[in-house]
Amino acid sequence: MADDALAVTLQQKGPIPLDLTLSCAAGDVLALVGPSGSGKSTILRSIAGLYRPEVGRVSVGAATWLDTSRRIDWPPYRRRVGLVFQNYALFPHMTALANVAAALGHLPRQERSRRAGELLELVHLADLHRRRPAELSGGQQQRVAVARALARDPDVLLLDEPFSAVDRVTRQRLYGELRELRRAFPIPILVVTHDFDEAARVANRMCLLDRGRILQTGTPRDVLARPASVQAARLVDLRNVFDARVLSHDGPLTILDWNGRTLQAARSEAHRAGAKVAWAIAGTQVLLSRTDLDQADSQPNRFSATIRDLVHLSESLAVTVVLEGPDAPVLSMTLPAHYARRTGLGPGSVVTVALMPEGIHVMPSEGEGQADLA
Predict the structure, then answer these.
(1) Is residue 77 scored above 70 in pLDDT?
(2) Residues 279, 281, 287, 288, CA torsion sign
(3) Domain boundaries along the sequence of the chain
(4) How confident is the model at residue 89 (pLDDT cuts 50, 70, 90)?
(5) Closest CA to 138 of 173, 106, 103
(6) Short-list 248, 244, 242, CA closest to 272
(7) Fold classification of 236-281+360-364 (topology level)
């Protein structure tokens, strides 16, 4: 672990149960994602010194901020943490410049205004420093809150649902600005969010939480497309999750029996022939065609199906199909919006569904235990 990395271990039975260990290297953005009550905000508060867990250790580099076994518990003012609250918590009677300057008490008074101005310029608010929070948009208030968090020259930056109060267009712009901050301030950054797409846009690491435990840690792409367990797959809203049995391994492929259907998946050495497994595939890895209908079900990964539902989104289609067979499994996929118009697809259309082998992720079946987490 790098010398200036953040390391956190927390344990308690309640009121929010916690049993986890995580780390974040300098220059990394770690997104904490999970349902309400999973402990995300409690983790941030424990790091900042605003909450004391029953058992815990928090360190940044060589500095130990919390170690309950050694009775170390630094107060918040000693911990070099920049914290952006969900509601930004700006002083309503103070200007943007004064809000930032209020966090610069460690500097001589004559230097505070200059440094506050530099930080507001960094977050693209140089021309608005005299405005009070009520005169700023939600996105502008968020930038002031970030500038104030950076005013303490923090060793760690913590962002609690920082984009939840702004509109979609502003949110997209703020994503880019957070990536700029990551380059300008190579410190550990933790972001709490409920939005998996948001986590993938702003973070290079993702930690999936449920009931105070870490289900999986990895790159956003791996966590979302290659969940470590059925439970993780459900939490990331991966809808195409099914049971199967391993038939064999053949070169780069693992051959599965899916209720009498033959599936070819990317080779998965962790599961021996005969093992019960679960498998999942993202909707973007499911292809749909109205041609070659007579060849469906005669080749691996190609099946006859009927469209059950088709929902037009802004730039894509959300499609669900029912495969033929006594189990009548339902598959969900995403297609370009123009595809239905060009092909005349609609509910009731008979189609061929093809599953990309490299997109099929094999994992332990529910009740068979979990794979080692990344």
Answers:
(1) yes
(2) positive
(3) 4-225, 236-281+360-364, 286-291+299-355
(4) confident
(5) 173
(6) 248
(7) OB fold (Dihydrolipoamide Acetyltransferase, E2P) (2.40.50)
Contact yes or no for 151/116 (Cβ under 8 A) = yes
Task: Give the tens place of pLDDT for each residue, 261-289.
Answer: 999 998 988 899 999 999 999 988 998 88
Cα separation of 40 and 33, whole Å?
7
Q: Which helix (H) or strand (E) segment is 223 a member of?
A: helix 220-225
Look at residues 252, 352, 249, 345 and name the one whose alpha carbon lies nearest to residue 301. 352
Same CATH fold assignment for domains 236-281+360-364 and 286-291+299-355: yes
**Cβ atoms of 33 and 205 closer than 8 Å:** no
Statement: residue 85 has pLDDT above 90: no
Q: How far is CA 334 from CA 97, 227, 320, 338, 361, in A?
A: 46, 19, 9, 12, 18
Q: How many CB atoms lie within 10 A of CB 21?
A: 12
Residues 132-174 have pLDDT tens digits of 999 988 888 888 988 889 888 899 999 998 777 666 777 777 8
Q: How far apart are CA 364 and CA 227, in angstroms?
A: 10
**C-alpha separations of 172 from 34, 46, 163, 233 in Å:** 21, 29, 9, 26
Q: How confident is the model at residue 344 (pLDDT cuts 50, 70, 90)?
A: confident
Residue 30 CA to residue 182 CA, distance in Å, equals: 11
Which CATH architecture fits 286-291+299-355?
Beta Barrel (2.40)
Amino acid at 275: A
71 — alpha (psi -120 to 50), left (phi > 0) or beta?
left
Homologous superfamily of the 4-225 domain (CATH): P-loop containing nucleotide triphosphate hydrolases (3.40.50.300)
Q: Are 120 and 144 in contact (CB under 8 A)?
A: yes
In the prediction, which pLDDT does 340 show? 67
The residue behind tokens 């993202």 is 282
